[in-house]
């Protein structure tokens, strides 16, 4: 068996600009699936996205309402804490700015909640100003369920565990509340350029 599948861009691939690869990462053409539990199945008729917590009024969107929101095309590099990076990934989604424009908040933090129970925490400032999306397509196709469909959070500037699959909402909080992996020893913030993999890095 060959070590290199046709689309593979290995760590010695001369086409890869090393300045785009954070320390300790290798570039892959694959799209590995990493899930801490079973893939939840949510029908689009029951799917809801909710912004709640420290907000003036909680906001909810059905799939039909969510699908009517403006979308953005995003091409970004993603970096998993298990050391793979994937360059120039193409997504379409609703900017978190668009969703948060509907609420008033004094919160400094957010917890993303997923169908299936996964959670991850982020400073609110990392979700705004064009840094985060609720993605519904990958490579022009509806997001597959193994990669988080129908919708996942996409926060490419942090390690990919912050990009919650099967996301069902954001709870805005005044205090920082560690999520699933953050409670299991992953770094609370997770900047790939600073190699913030685990607690204490
Ligand atoms: N709901 C949920 N979201 C999740 C995870 C998970 O287990 N459950 N794993 C995270 C981790 S560790 C990574 S690296 C990415 C993997 O996304 P992928 O399976 O699409 O590559 O999803 C993140 N989002
Ligand atoms: Mo990961």
Automatic annotation (TrEMBL):
<feature type="region of interest" description="Disordered">
    <location>
        <begin position="1"/>
        <end position="23"/>
    </location>
</feature>
<dbReference type="InterPro" id="IPR000572">
    <property type="entry name" value="OxRdtase_Mopterin-bd_dom"/>
</dbReference>
<protein>
    <submittedName>
        <fullName>Sulfite oxidase-like oxidoreductase</fullName>
    </submittedName>
</protein>
<dbReference type="Pfam" id="PF00174">
    <property type="entry name" value="Oxidored_molyb"/>
</dbReference>
<feature type="domain" description="Oxidoreductase molybdopterin-binding">
    <location>
        <begin position="37"/>
        <end position="181"/>
    </location>
</feature>
<dbReference type="InterPro" id="IPR036374">
    <property type="entry name" value="OxRdtase_Mopterin-bd_sf"/>
</dbReference>
């Amino acid at each position: 068996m060959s070590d290199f599948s046709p689309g593979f861009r290995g760590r010695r691939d001369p086409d890869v600009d090393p300045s785009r690869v954070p320390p300790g990462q290798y570039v892959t053409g694959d799209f590995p699936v990493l899930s801490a539990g079973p893939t939840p199945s949510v029908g689009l008729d029951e799917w809801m996205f909710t912004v709640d917590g420290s907000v003036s009024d909680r906001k909810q969107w059905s799939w039909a309402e969510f699908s009517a929101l403006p979308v953005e095309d995003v091409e970004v590099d993603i970096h998993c804490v298990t050391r793979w990076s994937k360059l120039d990934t193409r997504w379409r989604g609703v900017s978190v700015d668009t969703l948060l424009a509907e609420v008033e908040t004094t919160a400094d933090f957010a917890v993303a909640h997923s169908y299936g129970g996964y959670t991850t925490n982020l400073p609110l400032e990392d979700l705004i100003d064009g840094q985060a999306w609720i993605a519904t397509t990958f490579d022009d196709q509806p997001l597959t369920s193994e990669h988080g469909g129908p919708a996942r959070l996409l926060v490419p500037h942090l390690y990919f565990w912050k990009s919650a699959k099967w996301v069902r909402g954001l709870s805005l909080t005044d205090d920082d509340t560690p999520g699933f992996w953050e409670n299991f020893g992953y770094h609370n913030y997770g900047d790939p350029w600073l190699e913030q993999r685990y607690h204490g890095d």
